[in-house]
Amino acid sequence: DTLFEQQKLREITRHQVRYDTERKEQEIALLWQRNRIHELGIRQRNLYLFIAVLLLIALTIVAWLLYRAKKNREEKIKKEAALQAELLRLEAQSLLQDDRLRISRDLHDNIGAHLTFIHTSIASMTPGNAGWQNVQELVNDTISELRRTVWLMNKPSVSIEEWIIRLRAHYCKMGIIEVKVDNLTGKGGHMLSSRQATGLFRIVQEAVNNSLKYAIANRISIAVACNEAGMSIQVEDDGAGFLTDKAFHGFGLENMRHHAVEANGTLSIESTLGMGTRISVLIRFENTQYCV
After folding, report:
1. pLDDT of amino acid 187
2. 142 with 115: CB under 8 angstroms?
3. Which of 183, 185, 220, 226 is geometrically suited to a Cys-Cys bond with 231, CB 3.0 to 4.6 A?
4. What percent of the chain is modeled with pLDDT above 90?
């Protein structure tokens, strides 16, 4: 019995050891599976995070490409609008130039032809008295003024030098009028638009006519100066003068101011009774260019 009991005890011990070993192996296998599942979960989360980052980068790239495409379209639309505006401006300028040419041709061919015919008729019929001579001189002056108007209208722009030459030619026969030119700097030559050249000429004409007609001046000085900043014109006489606050709306002074504004300039008038009159015009050049 004792031997049987001992054998039975050893058998029970062996089975107990085997059971404990298998149980521990199962626990180890379970722990390994749990660790494996945990690692797979971490990998899955990392994969999801990586996919999310890729999607975010892709969305950012797509958004940037859409923004760039939108900006490019906007810039293209702006360029097309600017080009269209420039084409419209050039077309309007071309139409304006065509109208100028048409009007100048009409003036030259129609009114000029009639004035030339009148001048020829008067020259052949003049009996020599002062009245006929005055009429002939008036027709000559009208023809000269018509030619000057056609010349100004026919040119889209006029250089300062051309304008001064025309001014001197207009007043060269009048001994009491002196045209002075100074402070012309540079060599490039600033260009006046047709409107500026016409407006400045009309201002000088109106000022000289007022000096001769109303101020009874004995001396009239026209001073033209120009530099890289702008151009100034002064018409000064030694006539009777007037009160500027009372006569500013008369004697064509309002027209002179209007011509100055159209020429992108300013007009100032200084006059004293018995001390003469000075009319000044200042034109500021929009871009830095030198005069002739």
Report:
1. 43
2. yes
3. 226
4. 22
